[in-house]
Write a structure and sequence with these properties.
CATH superfamily of one domain: NAD(P)-binding Rossmann-like Domain
Mean pLDDT: 97
Shape: globular
Strand content: 15-25%
Strand order of the largest sheet: 3-2-1-4-5-6-11
Bound molecules: nicotinamide-adenine-dinucleotide, uridine-5'-diphosphate-4-deoxy-4-fluoro-alpha-D-galactose
Number of helices: 11
Distance between the termini: 40 Å
Oligomer: single chain
Length: 331
């Protein structure tokens, strides 16, 4: 059987680099494209160490039509896993045009070239941020959509474009709505490298653990949750990329959005406690005011992923913390 070639956009990023490893190990040939705007080839060095060879990489921007044309001319793709995009919520509020241009504009160019070359099979990185903040968790895929920041709006707009495209039965489209990805590959060679001050909770806790920052700022302890702090559904990055393989192999025409989480909810204080006991180190923290735009609770109903993809998360939160810690302390 000939090996299927898949295009991975944003494949030198945090989740994309784990996906390149997982798809290669599952027997696919991957071609990664990335403009390196939020990553570097260090991630690919890590990928090479894990696999024992270097997968194909072409540097370029998904908004660059000539670049895309060159790549689609060079390789006969079976389908696309689309990670490329900017993801910082705060930055998106300051630079909405950049976010719409990069995420929406780039995706349109990508879908255009796919259509031109008859490549109509795609798995897209969406986010739980597309759910309207008034929904009550656990969130199901049919709940009301609505966003509170430009980053989230770009994800929702791209979902809508894909839904429109998939009215043509030749297209097979899955949007995976990620909850909170954490952790790293168990080898310690690839993981999350936040640029500047981490926005996300676990990378921030890790910075405190390695002594880079004094204490974790806990954004509010007056939410209507178990201990008053924000509750989220943290999904291991290796489980997350496994879900992409299952989603890719689920061939159905049309458009299907699917939650990818664990269904387990963890508060900020519980996460700090879990890290302390996993790495046997005290993590200082201070309760501060709520962060604007945050919601109290966000966790998934994961029944659809189980039903359609036969996928369920298998790693524990302790596994994710230990693998994340292994990666951070190796660096
Ligand atoms: P990341 O920033 O590590 O990876 C994204 C990659 O896309 C980067 O390597 C960046 O250089 C590349 N890129 C950005 N714009 C590009 C363009 N125009 N052309 C080519 N390459 C471009 O982010 P990640 O955490 O790996 O996230 C991957 C995807 O998953 C993103 O679309 C993100 O929005 C989505 N997502 C992430 C999270 C999360 O918490 N990490 C949650 C939900 C959804
Ligand atoms: N938190 C802190 N201190 C920090 C960082 C976070 O207390 O320094 C709290 C937040 O208030 C929240 C929880 O930890 O209660 C998780 O916060 P993250 O920033 O790690 O994650 P969010 O759920 O806010 O956001 C993530 C992604 C977004 C995405 C959203 C919904 O970062 O890109 O999930 O999918 F839009």
């Amino acid at each position: 059987m000939t090996q299927k070639i898949i295009l991975i956009t944003g494949g030198t990023g945090y989740i994309g680099s784990h996906a390149v490893v997982a798809f290669e190990q599952a027997g696919y040939q991957t071609v990664t494209i990335d403009n390196l705007s939020n990553s570097s080839l260090d991630a690919f060095d890590g990928v090479e160490k894990i696999l024992g060879y270097r997968p194909i990489f072409r540097q370029g921007d998904i908004r660059d039509w000539d670049f895309l044309k060159g790549v689609f001319f060079e390789f006969a793709f079976d389908g696309v896993i689309h990670f490329a995009g900017l993801k910082a919520v705060g930055e998106s509020c300051k630079k909405p045009i950049l976010y719409h241009n990069n995420n929406v504009g780039g995706s349109i160019e990508l879908f255009r070239i796919m259509e031109e070359y008859g490549v109509r099979h795609i798995v897209f990185s969406s986010s739980a941020t597309v759910y309207h903040p008034d929904n009550q968790s656990p969130l199901t895929e049919d709940m009301r959509l609505g966003t509170t920041n430009p980053y989230g709006t770009t994800k929702l707009v791209i979902e809508k474009i894909l839904e429109d495209l998939a009215r043509d039965a030749q297209w097979s489209v899955i949007s995976l709505r990620y909850f909170n990805p954490i952790g790293a590959h168990p080898s310690g060679y690839i993981g999350e490298i936040p640029s500047g001050i981490p926005n996300n909770l676990l990378p921030y806790i890790m910075d405190v653990a390695i002594g880079k920052r004094d204490k974790v700022l806990v954004f509010g302890d007056d939410y209507d949750t178990r201990d008053g702090t924000g509750v989220r559904d943290y999904i291991d990055v290796c489980d997350l990329v496994d879900a992409h393989i299952s989603a890719y192999e689920y061939h159905d025409s049309g458009y299907t959005p699917i939650n990818i989480g664990t269904g387990i909810w963890v508060s900020v204080l519980e996460m700090i406690e879990l890290v302390q006991s996993a790495i046997d180190q005290t993590i200082s923290y201070e309760i501060t005011s709520r962060r604007s735009g945050d919601i109290a609770e966000c966790y998934a109903n994961v029944s659809l992923a189980k039903k359609l993809l036969w996928w369920t998360a298998t790693r524990t939160i302790k596994d994710s913390i230990m693998n994340g810690w292994n990666f951070v302390s190796n660096r």
